[in-house]
Amino acid sequence: MSASQSDVLIIGGGVAGLTLALTLADRFHVVLVRPAQDDQGASRWAQGGIAAVLSPDDNLEAHVQDTLIAGDGLCDERAVRFTVENGPAAIQWLIDNGVPFTPDTAPDARYAYHLTREGGHNARRIIHADDATGKAVVETLNSQASTHPHITQRDDVAVIDLLTDDNGACCGAHGVDTSGKAHILLASHTALATGGASGLYQHTTTPAPNSGEGMMMAASLGATLMNLEFQQFHPTCLYDPEGPAFLISEAVRGEGGQLLNEAGERFMPAVDTRAELAPRDIVARAIDAEIQRGSHGHVWLDIRHLGAAAIRHHFPTILAHCASRGMDITREPIPVVPAAHYSCGGVETDLYGRTSVAGLYAIGEVACTGLHGANRMASNSLLECLVFARSCAETLLATSADNTTHALASPNVTRLSTDSPLDHTALAELRATMRATMSQHVAIVRHIEGLEIASHQLAALEAQLLSLDPDSEHPESRRLRHNLKLARLTVLAAQQRHESRGLHYSPDWPHHAKTSRPSRLTLGNIQQ
Fold it and tell me: Which cofactor(s) does the record list (predicted)?
């Protein structure tokens, strides 16, 4: 077992983790744990762009109100205003760091960069780099982080658990490398930037989705988890049962894409006056209903009427990817289905990324700041990553030298060993069953009976896992145990919400409750 020590340990190398690392590195020694699979993480696959008030024709209050409406009454308005007000400066930071956003070359352009519009927004305020914004941001920031003398990137280790000192404060993390060797990563401050929990479901919008491991690592230290029931399903993921997941950006609908049912008819205008640009929860439910009524297993997203030149200009990545799968989207509509996309819930934090555990911070999708409420508005995700990474850095940079160390001498380390015997086939079957259970009973539409079935099935799966590895010593069984516990907490959160709101829809509770508040759970809620 090896051990190392740093000022700040950041777990996760997407937009949030890279932004935090770069903002801190001039003062602190930063260790950034960024496994190779992060190149397939959610940040890289974010196509549409980043929402911010940039045009002189837009205003902060409009962005605030659009976000509050999309959040369906559960947003923390203070968090919304904080995010929106700090958005323009965060975008300027990216521009200053060389992110190649798409320019607006129109003679009458009101802003230097092209701004598109997405669902829930009443103005064009989405800055983007063609249709591969996440890729452009991650590659630009990672290029700088890779050469910074005060940032040590660890792509050889996967974090499995967090560590606490004798005072109960987080003092780093425990992980294993590809050869199975254990590593202790001690740090004065630890920040989770591990992403969401869409991997709890069968179908997702990213090829290598996280399954909430960071959320449960924090919960294991006593952190509170908030709003887990609000799992967003992106309305339009490419339907191709034989190929990997691929997101079809909401910007496609923002530029005029139309959703068609099996009869070739638009159905969104009859559902919502905003039609295809209604918030994602509404569009996803409408698509799901059409799929249930039909026989194809998908609906169509049609952009042929935009013309081949416009499609090539606005959506080169989507055009090329679909072509690689045998589809010419300039001549035929795109088959799409909703898929698990974004976790609006996560580790409860304040406006500076602080959790309820001393020494532990959470930023990005792993965190729940109150910004999204019951439903995330399009392109507010990367905005949240940027704003809260920068505010978290502000807090850490204000920390005096006398307060930057915890009692690191005796971290509480639980045993991990890849030498532990484990039936990997049985483990894979348990994971597949978990995902099938969540997709069947805890997805776009939830029923009381189905949630009860899911609760019992997930508890039984956890019992089976413990029989395979009673002490959860093997890293893979430890991960799955985290996943199962988070799935059980998600079901419990859904069971406790006796209403339909945002992303949580149940025909058994079809209306808003008279009073509604965020849900908060801890690991103790399911401990047996």
Answer: FAD
